[in-house]
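One such shown below:
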Amino acid sequence: MKILALIYAAEDAWESLPDEERQAGYAKYRAFGERAGGKIATGAELAPTRTATTVRVRDGELLVSDGPFAETKEALGGFYVFDVDSLEEAESLAAEIPGAQSGAIELRVAHQEEAA
């Protein structure tokens, strides 16, 4: 089963870290990736929310605006797609993501169409 792990954290806190501390944080994420092995299908860090673009279509009209949809204290900073056997397995993996220590990890199960 595919499960999306969305990593939320205080964006300003990460950006204000000295480079040495940020590099140590990246090392923790690399170590997590190695421990998780083949359970991670893909993942990435996202660019800061100030670089976001929001796209909407209303009454057939394309509306594009700079920035995220809504302001929040914690921003979506990255993601993993887990390929696991159960939600419980994904929860165990999510608990090991370094961002879980100071932010939040939201798990979303990919919708599975029933076989006809």
User: Anything to note?
Assistant: The chain has one domain: 2-109.
